[in-house]
Design goal:
Layout: H1 10-24, H2 30-37, H3 41-48, H4 60-69, H5 74-79, H6 93-108, H7 113-123, H8 130-170, H9 178-195
Amino acid sequence: MPRRKGRIYKKDIQAIAERLGRFVRRFDKPSEFSRRFRVPRTTLRTWTQAGDVPPAIPDSAYLLMLAEEGNLNLNWLFLGEGSELRQRETTTPQGALMAAIAAELRTTEEADEADHEQAWARLAMYGPDSVFRLAVEAVRPLYHQALLDVEHAQASAHNLKQVYKAVLAETGMDLDDEGIRERVLDLGVRAEAELLKVPPRPFVVRPLRLYPEVETKRET
């Protein structure tokens, strides 16, 4: 059905509110978002509220501020197209990662666009791959934890299969039967898949300790 001129459907308004809510959650707390962009909490609630009352759409002045100061991609906000944040166009996977990091910093750090560009250019002085390598090292603990989760799921599925085989043997089942072997194998596959669906524990980022702590001895 063609859209009437000047009309926005309720489902479109709700979709915009949901996407705006995702953007707000980048700032840890709604109060931080309100402080950063000088938006009253009551106004913010009208933008992201759910329920019978349709949410409001930010006016043009707020939208321009969110795009300029918050790096929000308005094409994504209104149409759900592209990335959430405005990013440089790139042609390589590494370039895409770097652009995503730059966009995140531009959004969450309180620096204007000119200062951000100068700071980002200065990062290049550390070497062409320095930011990429730091990003990899930051992800490495999560990757190791994910590997441990996979190993745990595999070990648990194996143990479950052993228990299942023992139960079948107790009931007189022939474990050499091809059909029984397939049942045991299928159980292990399904158990491992279900275990890997369990959400991971929250990952807490702790501050780096670059210097050893020096214990001070009390004078006697």
